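Ticket #4471: structure output looks truncated?

Reporter: J.K.
Steps to reproduce: submitted the chain below (202 residues) through the standard prediction queue, then opened the result file.
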Amino acid sequence: MSGTRFFVEAFVTMFVIMDPPGVIPLFLAYTSGRSPRERRRIAWQAAVTAFCLIVVFAVFGQAILAYLHVEVAAMQIAGGLLLLLVALELLRGVSQPSSESMRSNVNVALVPLGTPLLAGPGAIVATIVFAQQAGSRPGGILALGLAIAAVHLVLWVFMRFSVSIIRVIKENGVELVTRIAGLLLSALAVQLIINAIRALLA
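Returned output as attached by the reporter:
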């Protein structure tokens, strides 16, 4: 049961950080003028790019913290503050692509879709924190791996079928889901800070 709960916690946190519904208008903006085949290619390339980056930080993130002599509680507080900033951006709806980025000849599947929009600072910090917690929970490592894979699968589905999805839920629906995700993420960020403070005072 502990592994299942940890999976749900990690999945929900990363889902609201990466915000698959909110990615739809950004994905469509960056792939404007592309053929359906090019959009499908960009969708899976962006998902794979983000997945690889997140896995790297899940595996080596703790070693990086150890090298920098950073404690888990410090990372949790820093991560909570960073996630809170991400949540505020979602609530305010300020994360929009610039016209210069959309005109860039760089492969948008890698930059900016793969990173920093999908595998951004918030997702990376959350991954490192969960990776630190996974070792002390039964089935935690497997649960975290499944959560990471599931989130990126959902991201790929939302980007792959972005045109169809936005026809159904409309732009107002995307905005509503994004605001709800921001609210949930802000609560998770505050809880992360509270847990870190409790650990320091224990």
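Triage note (M.O.): checked the attachment and the full token line is present. The chain has a mean pLDDT of 86.
Status: closed, working as intended.
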